[in-house]
Design brief:
Layout lengths: L2 E6 L25 E8 L8 E8 L2 H17 L11 H10 L6 H19 L9 H13 L10 H8 L13 H21 L22
Antiparallel strand pairs: 1-2, 2-3
């Protein structure tokens, strides 16, 4: 069983909004785009050919190593196919339920963070679809809650509001510490997903947070 390594760009055509991928002229530059690997998953009896992508990777060598690792698992019979119907919402809920040994108060806090932020913000995505820009968009929308802004409301922002009750207390501005708690929970979940083999890397690992202390009332 073979695979391939290639380079693609996430830039979009300004007129159509479609991803340019291999058509972007800047891909000729070494500092533009990212490397990906592609391979065929094992086909179950009566099933269809399923092609998988690994990436984005910062270097061609890294993409090649991840491809070799995936093909090695297929050859050894230890490969676990990705469930195309698995969403972050479902996987996160399972992971939270399986976290035994936590204090009841900690479990309640984690459930609330997931219910009000992670699930409405990211829950519709598959774990392998999740990227750093999705996480950044979530935190940007969280910072908009309860604040007067001239920015148009995004779909992310509307989903976050829909998850809250329509009361002043539920829609007041969020502390920066709240976003950091959400990030810590997301990091723990994604690191666990990497260990389980659900994803190959943690897409939130390079997302930067505002580490300043929140002023009173924020």
């Amino acid at each position: 069983m073979e695979g391939s390594v290639f380079r693609r760009c996430a830039c979009c055509d300004p007129k159509t909004g479609k991803k340019l991928e291999a058509k972007r002229p800047q891909l000729k530059r070494r500092d533009h785009g990212a490397h990906w690997a592609r391979y065929d998953e094992p086909v179950a009896a009566g099933g269809k050919r399923r092609q998988r992508r690994i990436g984005p990777c910062t270097t061609k060598d890294l993409a090649q190593r991840k491809l070799v690792e995936a093909l090695g698992k297929i050859d050894s019979g230890t490969y676990v196919p990705v469930d195309k119907n698995l969403t972050v919402a479902v996987d996160l809920a399972r992971w939270l339920t399986g976290r035994i040994g936590l204090k009841a108060s900690t479990q309640r806090c984690n459930d609330e963070l997931a219910k009000l932020s992670l699930i409405p913000g990211l829950g519709h995505l598959r774990p392998d679809e999740l990227r750093g820009h999705h996480v950044e968009a979530l935190y940007a929308a969280m910072r908009q809650i309860g604040r007067t802004t001239t920015q148009p409301s995004s779909a992310m922002f509307r989903r976050l509001l829909a998850a809250r009750t329509n009361t002043p207390q539920a829609r007041r501005p969020l502390h920066r510490a709240r976003i950091r708690r959400v990030h810590a929970l997301l990091q723990a979940y994604l690191n666990a997903a990497v260990r389980r083999g659900t994803i190959t890397r943690n897409p939130a690992s390079n997302v930067e947070l505002d580490m300043r202390r929140s002023p009173r009332g924020f």
